[in-house]
Amino acid sequence: MRWAQNDQDQPVYWLNGLAGTGKSTIAQTFSKMASDRDLVGASFFCSRDYSNRKALKNIFPTLAYQLACHYPRFKDHLVKVIKQDPSVAHNSLISQLSDLLVDPLSATGISCVIVIDALDECVDDQPASAILSVLGRLVSKLPLVKFFITGRPEPRIRSGFRLPLLEPFTQVFLLHEVEPTSVGGDIQLYLTEKLTGIAKRRSGLDLPEVWPLDEDIAVLVKKSSGLFIFASTVARFIESEHHDPMERLRLIVSKADDTTHEGASGIDSLYSQVLRDAFFGIEEESVFVDLKRILSAVVLALDPLSRDGLVKLLNINSTTISTRLRHLHSVILVPTDGSKEIRVFHKSFPDFLQEPNRCRDSRFHIDCQQRHGDMALSCLRLVGKLKMNPCGLPPFVMNEDVSDRTQRMDELGSGLRYACKYWSTHLSLSSSSGEHSDRLVASTSLFFDYAVFPWMEVMSLEGHLEGVIHSMNHLSDRLRTVSGTRYDQDQ
């Protein structure tokens, strides 16, 4: 807050922290506090879980829209820009920043803070962050504007902030290097509040008069090793309505191995414990077959799927999905409303499941290429059921003339809409050899024989007609790969 209100400080603030250290929580809190003082003009919270929030091209147009809603004089200037170039939102990042933000802000003299959270979660193939590269070129033209940016210290983010044009303008705060006693005190307060709250809410349990014990909290704080995500996951694990909180606390506290950062020790141990406890004593192979299919779909989905969507996509009934995920609510958010999206609490959990050196139990480990192939087959099975004119449109009607288009699309169901949009992407991420690949080739062939035109109609009504081109490119690349593999085998 001092930085936001001091005109003499550098205009860019990088909150640099490891995963799980609380960057996004701080960004949200800072945005709220600064907004209450009318300091924040716009914000963008990146997320790899959502296609529209991980695309770099969406950041500057979104910020410009929010600024226009906040400042009428900015809106007036922005409207002129859009009238001169209606495609400005699709231009290069440097053009977007210049036309949508720099020119209007310079012309209007607006002073504000712009927040960009979790920049590392955006898809970016540049060695140095593309957003930071263009920001470095133009930040000097915005003397009244400050940028608060959070991100993990990944190579491209570090390289971006070290660019000669940006580094002199950047103030860096290393969240993971905060004094451990300070972080530990905060985590201790958090865990004490959460666990004593359990004791108050669940009065029917035979909990001791003093629970939890100070020494138990001390063990949890030590195991957290400064990771708030560890502390919050522990709290969710203990407060499960289906389990005895004393027993769950004992399971965690009794583990002798130490924890450091996400993945290497602590949180992996917790995830392993959660999975073992959730399926302790279950021997039926079918349970784990279903579980792996469901978990794979949740973890690998390119946009989060709801329970209703999973029912259609995986051809598994809703009760089975709910039952298999029932005891995983400490790591996965499963809304009671079947139309709401199922999400993992933190990306370290899918990372854990997909890495065999971390998830050593084959019942839970997710082989990405194989499971993307399964997802592609599921998508093609669903899309292959489309009939001509799947939305029941009158003949010779243009999309813009369909007044109830949203309702018609909703009637298709989220699972089918997901399958139409992402079958080719899952195909491109699957293995290009083996029996699995042969099944995918056969399914794709049937799709082109019977469902390609209805699929194109759905994509058009969704406003994703350009996705047809991307799908064909994915398919073309895949066929070349498969042909090359088979040629090598023949040789």
What does this 3D model show about the protein?
This protein has helices at 2-5, 23-36, 59-70, 72-84, 93-108, 130-138, 155-161, 180-201, 214-224, 228-238, 245-253, 266-278, 285-300, 307-314, 318-325, 348-354, 368-383, 405-412, 414-428, 435-450, 452-462, 465-490; strands at residues 12-16, 40-45, 112-117, 145-151, 170-174, 332-333, 343-344. It is of the alpha/beta class. The strands form two sheets. The chain has a five-stranded parallel β-sheet with strand order 2-3-4-1-5. Strand 3 (112-117), helix 6 (130-138) and strand 4 (145-151) form a beta-alpha-beta unit. Helix 17 runs parallel beside helix 20 (435-450), helix 19 (414-428) runs parallel beside helix 22 (465-490) and helix 21 (452-462) crosses helix 22.
Taking the alpha carbons of the first and last residues, their distance comes to: 67 Å
Provide mean pLDDT, rounded. Answer: 86
Counting helices, strands and paired strands, the structural category is alpha/beta
Number of H- or I-type helical stretches: 22
Count of distinct strands: 7
As a percent range, the share of helical residues equals 55-70%
**SSE order:** HEHEHHHEHEHEHHHHHHHHEEHHHHHHH
Q: How are the strands of the largest sheet arranged?
A: 2-3-4-1-5
Low-confidence stretches: 258-265, 486-491
Radius of gyration: 25 Å
